[in-house]
Known about the structure:
Elements: E1 4-10, H1 14-25, E2 33-38, H2 45-53, E3 59-63, H3 69-83, E4 88-93, E5 96-98, H4 102-112, E6 119-125, E7 155-157, E8 164-168, H5 169-175, H6 187-196, E9 201-211, H7 232-243, H8 248-268, H9 273-288
Amino acid sequence: MRDVVAVIVTYNRKKLLERCIECVLAQEKVQCDLIIVDNASTDGTHELIEMAYGSRPELIYMNTGANLGCTGGFQAGVREAVNRGYSYVWMLDDDTLPEPDALERLITADRELQGDWGFLVSAAYWTDGSICMMNRPKTTIFCHVKEKSYHKHLKKVVMGTFVSLLVRTNVIRDVGLPIGEYFIWTDDYEYTGRISAKYPCYMVPDSKVIHAMKEHRRADFAKDDAARLGRYRYLYRNDVHCYRRYGMQGWCYILLKDFYTVFHILLHSDGHKLEKIKVVWQGAMEGLRFHPKIEMLENYQEKGQRKNI
Length: 309
C-alpha cells in the first residue's frame, strides 16, 4: 500500500477509463494505488478491469451496484480511500489523462508548502493543447484563474474541479465527504469551497492533465439536446445549495447566473424554451429546500510509519 491513491469514477466509458488508468500507472517517480469506482456500467467495464488489470495488486475495483452519479461515486471512493488508511487522495475523472509527472508535481508542491494546504488542483488542458474552459479553478466565486497564472508556480484558489484534485486525508476527516446527493454538477465547487473555507488551497500549473472531453465547452443549457433537459435540474438545484452559504455574494451569483441562463435560452435555444426555463425555475426552487447532510468520518490516529513517496 502506497501513501497516495487515485480515485477514478466511471460509468459506461471503458475506452476512456482504460486510457486514464494507463496514464495513472505510468506516473514517474511518484506512484500511487488506484480505486476504480464503477457506477454499475453495462459496457463491459468490469470485464475490462478483470482481464487487463486483475493481476495488479495496486488496483482496487468497486461496483456501486447503481448509477450514483459522479458525486455519489466520489463519495464512495473517497470514503473507501480514507478507511483504507491512505494519506493522500487523488481524485480524477475517467476522461482525465495526466502527464507522466502530474502526481510528482503535486507532491512537490505539498513538500514546498509543508503540508499547509487543503487541496491542490492540476492545470487542465483540452486535447488541442488549449486551456480547458470547463476546468479553470476559481479565485473567487465570480472569477476564474486567468491565463497568465498558468505560467506561475503556484496560484491560490478557492474552488477547483475533480478532473485532477489532490486532497489530504486529514482534511477529508475534518470537512467530510463530497455530498453524494448532488449526483452531478457543482459537486466539485461545493466540496473544494468547503475545504478552502478552512485551508489555503492552490492550483499547481506544473501539474498538467488533458481533459479528453468530447467537446471543448461548458455545459450550454440553451443549445443542449431536449433529451437531456431533466439532468439540468441538478445544476440549478445544486448551485443554490452551494452558493447560498456565501451570503449576499452567493445570492448575487445565483441570481445573475439564472437570469443570464433564461436570457440566453430566449435568444439562442432552437426549441423547448418554456420547458428549459421551467427547469431552471424548478431547480432553483428545489435548491431552497435542499438540505443534504454532509457525511463525516471518524478521526483516528494513524498507526505505524508513513511510507516515503
